[in-house]
Design a protein that fits this description.
Elements (H helix, E strand, L loop, with lengths): L10 E2 L5 H14 L3 E3 L7 H10 L8 E6 L6 H15 L4 E6 L9 H12 L3 E7 L3 H10 L4 E7 L7 H9 L3 E5 L11 H10 L3 H10 L4 E3 L6 H9 L7 H8 L20
Parallel strand pairs: 1-2, 2-3, 3-4, 4-5, 5-6, 6-7, 7-8
Helix pairs in contact: 1-2, 2-3, 7-8
Bound molecules: NADP nicotinamide-adenine-dinucleotide phosphate.
Length: 269
């Protein structure tokens, strides 16, 4: 699958609500973001849809991702969840719809069939998954009737996901990094501080540049502040040298910052 439809950096909206969300998404679109990440669970699809509609940018040029929550993974519930998302977003189809988490019982075949039916019915252009560990993703690749466009996973300087990334590259499944700034926990790390000072940029730009320099890796930093949004997009222009990358590669220690709704084998170690 060709993943060129997916911008390297998009806007995460998990924490954005009400007018703050409308303003943040509007500003992001104005300064050049073309990938907006929402989810049924975030309770802000109406606001995301409003900002997209009012942007004056053709919806064909914006990729909106939404997700179906793990309690809604029975076929009828999935259909209902997507219908509500489309209603909230005020659109006939969504660009990308994901299973937000693997099913609790890890039985993936039925939900994957249902995702495929959305593509066939024209309700989603593409489908994918989120928070799938490697073994489960390999199983999913074997049974899905349509290609999986992405696996949205926690990935940042503290969590490199090397083996999973390699597998996803081989399977042509884009890696979309959620929590790409690890919610700020590496802000005081000496390696980051040194490289940020070397280029006179923020540590967030260094962290994002390190992520998206990797082929097949995209990132969706959450940011409501317009200055942060601009800063993050400008990370695309920061070229790190081999020494920088080698030092940044040493930061990873397996730390996770996102909370799992239930234990998922392969994500817990
Ligand atoms: N699939 C999943 O299960 C899952 C799980 C978690 C998250 N996500 C997605 O991933 C997105 C990103 O994750 P996240 O928002 O939790 O964490 P994050 O992107 O690691 O960090 C977001 C925080 O960083 C701050 N920030 C962003 N850019 C900055 C900059 N240039 N300078 C200073 N501070 C900056 C933001 O502040 P301001 O808001 O003040 O700008 C916000 O407090 C979410 O919004 C959501 O869309 C998905």
């Amino acid at each position: 699958m060709n993943n060129s439809f997916l911008p390297k950096i998009g806007l995460g909206t998990w924490s954005l609500q009400g007018d703050v969300c409308v303003d943040a998404v509007s500003n992001a679109l104005e300064v050049g973001y073309r990938l907006i990440d929402t989810a049924a669970f975030y309770g802000n699809e109406r606001e995301v849809g409003k900002a997209v509609r009012e942007s004056g940018i053709s919806s064909k040029d914006i990729v909106v991702t939404t997700k179906i929550w793990h309690t809604e993974l029975q076929p009828d519930a999935m259909k209902r969840s997507l219908e509500i998302s489309l209603e909230n977003l005020q659109t006939d189809y969504v660009d990308l719809v994901l299973m937000h988490w693997p099913p609790k019982d890890l039985r993936i075949e039925e939900p994957l069939m249902q995702l495929a039916s959305f593509v066939e019915a024209g309700l989603a252009k593409r489908v994918g998954v989120s928070n799938f560990p490697q073994q489960l993703l390999e199983d999913a690749v074997r049974v899905t009737p349509v290609p999986l466009a992405c696996n949205q996973i926690e990935m940042h300087l503290g969590l490199r996901q090397r083996s999973l990334l390699q597998m996803m590259k081989g399977a042509e499944i884009a890696a979309v990094a959620h929590c790409p700034l690890a919610r700020g926990i590496y802000g005081q790390h000496p390696v980051l501080k040194k490289i940020a000072a070397k280029y006179s940029v923020s540590w967030q730009q260094v962290a994002l540049a390190w992520l998206v320099r990797q082929p097949n890796v995209h990132a969706i930093p959450g940011a409501h502040d317009p200055a942060h949004q601009r800063d993050n997009l400008a990370a695309l222009e920061l070229i790190l040298d081999n020494d920088d990358v080698a030092s940044l590669d040493t930061v990873s220690n397996g730390t996770r910052v996102s909370v799992h709704p239930y234990p998922i084998p392969g994500l817990e170690e």
